[in-house]
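Postdoc handover notes: sequence design on the structure in folder B. Input tokens:
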């Protein structure tokens, strides 16, 4: 038995490393990758349409794009379309006059069903300030309380149902020692969680129930509803005839529900969905057998199952030990796919929430190990019940962290969206001669002509933001041409970035851009060198 478990874990490890090594970056949530006109762009000729490109395929019936002028008047003609390219939304425009226009959008991913919102701005004949200056947050919205509650109830119910089947078949001597009331309550929690999830989708997409259910996201929600409904006859059968096989049917139904949920979440948005969905499903099933089984172990101990004297707790401990390894391995594989880099564990909401979940998981493992060596291997006692209660409490917290985590865009997706948004821009780092400050200059689009300039200034040693009175850019072409480029005084935004727009980079070639930082006591200069980018060819529609 142990040899088979070890062999299965080794096979999973090999497959996991292979998939992670050959797959591309994970995607989840439809995050904005590119807009035409670009955010903050100034165009001389009024565009006839707006194109928004996202990191995932869009649900056409749940995609809305508006184009507004400074007074709030709308200039889009008709509804947004998702043409031949499924990741692109297009909306035709009425004739635009000179001024600044804001493009607002709301869309839902067909892969994971998450809705994102955001806006960009462009100017016709006048300068416009970029709206989504921070590319790592454009379109990301925090999960609502209703969505978190819905996912938590859904996961808790499904986990309890699967745990019931595992404990009834592998642990207790008689299935009748388990509580049918708890079984029905678990199914009710799962069903209520799905209802709340559907209600939340309807609220954030601002659509009718019929429109939602007719969409691609709605089809996945209906598939989950069917799986939940088909589990109800199994729950009724186990309630009326509490036999091992009837309770096993409940576990099978719960595993089917978990498969449908895995096919509707982040895992299905991966570059290798066949693998990641399987990993996610195996992870959920293992959590159900372990964490869900804890509640049923406590019920069996209280009801006095006939198998207590024959090692009820020891049998469950064996099951928990086997599933623990699978939970840890599959969780690691999913984390590698969704985070992608260690630093993202600290600088993204998804990473921080994942760390919280991992901390709770470590506590749960420690409590389980303590129970095994202090109570189970010795002799079951009242102390064991207290230990199981503590494990259940931590398990509830783990599911809560999971509910929040599944509502956030994975760190790798956010990083990929930011990378795509920065494509066609220049980033240059440097410092002053005395190494007192570090500066980073972002030039977008980085071609000859109009550009947006974004400068951050930090202390050279501590990396803390420098409190400057002013930041100015001076430009000098390095290829011998006699070009007069006026200096550009930047304006500081609330996020401590100094920004401005200029056409100083008027020629293709190499330039020296000197960043002049003026503080109350000193003035320093940081010379930076850059080469303008070639203008990209127009993308096909």
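Designed sequence:
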């Amino acid at each position: 038995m142990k040899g088979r478990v070890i062999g299965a874990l080794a096979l999973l490890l090999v497959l996991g490393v292979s998939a992670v090594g050959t797959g591309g970056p994970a995607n989840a949530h439809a995050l904005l990758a590119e807009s035409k006109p670009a955010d903050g762009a100034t165009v001389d000729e009024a565009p006839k349409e707006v194109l928004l490109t996202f990191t995932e395929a869009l649900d056409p019936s749940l995609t809305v794009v508006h184009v507004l002028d400074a007074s709030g008047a709308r200039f889009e003609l008709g509804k947004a379309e998702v043409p031949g390219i499924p990741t692109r939304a297009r909306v035709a425009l009425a004739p635009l006059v000179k001024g600044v226009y804001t493009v607002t959008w709301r869309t839902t991913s067909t892969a994971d069903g998450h809705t994102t919102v955001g806006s960009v701005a462009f100017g016709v004949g006048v300068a416009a300030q970029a709206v989504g200056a921070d590319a790592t947050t454009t379109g990301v919205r925090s999960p609502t309380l209703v969505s978190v509650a819905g996912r938590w109830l859904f996961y808790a119910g499904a986990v309890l149902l699967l745990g019931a089947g595992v404990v009834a078949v592998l642990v207790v001597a008689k299935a009748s020692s388990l509580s049918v009331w708890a079984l029905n309550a678990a199914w009710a929690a799962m069903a209520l969680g799905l209802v709340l999830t559907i209600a939340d989708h309807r609220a954030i997409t601002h659509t009718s129930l019929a429109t939602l259910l007719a969409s691609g996201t709605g089809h996945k929600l209906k598939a989950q509803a069917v799986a939940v409904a088909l589990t109800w006859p199994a729950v009724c059968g186990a309630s009326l005839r509490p036999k091992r096989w009837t309770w096993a049917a409940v576990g099978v139904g719960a595993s089917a529900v978990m498969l449908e949920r895995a096919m509707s979440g982040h895992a299905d948005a991966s570059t290798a969905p066949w693998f990641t969905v399987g990993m996610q499903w195996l992870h959920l099933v293992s959590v159900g057998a372990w964490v869900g089984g804890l509640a049923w172990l406590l019920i069996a101990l209280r009801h006095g199952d006939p198998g207590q004297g024959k090692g009820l707790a020891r049998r469950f401990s064996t099951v928990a030990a086997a599933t623990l390894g699978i939970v840890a391995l599959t969780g690691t594989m999913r984390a590698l796919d969704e985070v992608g880099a260690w630093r993202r564990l600290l600088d993204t909401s998804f990473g921080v929430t994942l760390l919280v979940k991992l901390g709770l998981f470590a506590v749960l493992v420690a409590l389980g190990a303590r129970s095994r060596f202090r109570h189970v291997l010795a002799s079951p006692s009242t102390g064991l019940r207290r230990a199981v209660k503590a494990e259940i409490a931590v398990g509830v917290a783990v599911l809560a962290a999971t509910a929040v985590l599944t509502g956030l865009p994975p760190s790798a997706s956010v990083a990929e969206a930011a990378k795509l948004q920065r494509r066609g821009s220049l980033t240059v780092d440097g410092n002053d001669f005395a190494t007192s400050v570090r500066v980073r200059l972002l030039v977008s689009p980085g071609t000859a002509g109009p550009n947006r300039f974004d400068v951050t200034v930090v202390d050279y040693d501590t990396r803390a933001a420098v409190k400057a009175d002013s930041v100015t850019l001076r430009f000098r072409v390095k290829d011998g041409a006699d070009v007069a480029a006026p200096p550009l005084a930047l304006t500081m935004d609330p996020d401590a970035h100094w920004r401005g727009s200029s056409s100083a980079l008027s020629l293709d070639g190499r330039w020296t851009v000197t960043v002049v930082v003026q503080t109350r006591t000193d003035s320093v200069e940081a010379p930076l060198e850059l080469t303008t980018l070639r203008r990209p060819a127009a993308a096909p529609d």
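Context for whoever picks this up: Residues 1-26, 133-138, 536-541 have pLDDT under 50 and may be disordered. Don't rerun without checking with the PI first.
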